[in-house]
Amino acid sequence: MRLDHISYAAGPDGLAATAERIGGLLGREFLDGGVHPRFGTRNMVLPLSGGTYLEIVEALDHPASDKAPFGQAVKARSANGGGWLGWVVAIDDLDAVEERLGREAVPGNRHRPDGTELRWLQIGVNGLIGDPQLPFFIKWLTPELHPSTGADGTYSLACLEIAGDPQRVSEWLGETVEAPLEDVKVEWVAPNGTPGIMAVQVQTPAGLVRI
Where residue 41 sits, what CATH number does that domain have? Predict the structure, then answer.
């Protein structure tokens, strides 16, 4: 179990403008990730060291974004102005999580602009919708194409600021919350409103940037 990526829902100005704004703060452009046809969303990504990445995602005007939980989550967050959507944990064995949550993982895929297809299984988005401090889970079926590929080591995730209860998150994970976050500093704060990711700190060549 390890931290895989952090998702940010595009604001009212749309995916490209949101990616340009955040990329400008970080000093690096996001890459076009392509469309998630099953979820009615599309994304842009920024590879980070340590096998992680940042994702900016928006919901498309497509029936899938109304039906798929992930599309629903993105649409709702964007409708509230956009911002950090949630964090995602990569696991190798989904069986225990499927048994604990009482449902099966769903397949996901997207095609990069060059036609390369990334495929994975994911589960737990409904948990994120109900309690945004909770991550959802992903198992990559094409690990050799992981979106962190190409990271040059100059950008890394330094800290997550999460409003929530680490004990609650540990119960959701099925093990201590430190397991997937052992290489990332986490600052837990008591929720003053909706729990979830409050900010992300990224180490860049120009120093630490908080978004």
Answer: 3.10.180.10
Window from 95-99, 127-131, 173-177 with minimum mean pLDDT: 173-177
pLDDT, residue 1, reads: 86
Structural domain range at position 123: 2-151
Strands (E), 49-155: 52-59, 83-90, 106-111, 117-123, 136-140
What the block records as the tokens of 111 is 């095609």
- Residue 23 exposed, middle or buried by CB count within 10 Å (0-12, 13-18, 19+): middle
Q: Is the pTM of this model over 0.90?
A: yes
User: What is the per-residue pLDDT for 180?
Assistant: 74
Asked if residue 50 belongs to a domain, the reply is yes
Domain assignment present for residue 167? The answer is no
Nearest in space to 57 (alpha carbons), one of 27, 83, 29, 24:
83
Whether residue 29 is contained in a domain is answered as: yes
Is 192 a member of any domain?
Answer: no
Residue 47 burial (CB < 10 Å; 0-12/13-18/19+)?
Answer: buried
| Whether residue 121 has pLDDT greater than 80 | yes
Q: What is the pLDDT of residue 62?
A: 87
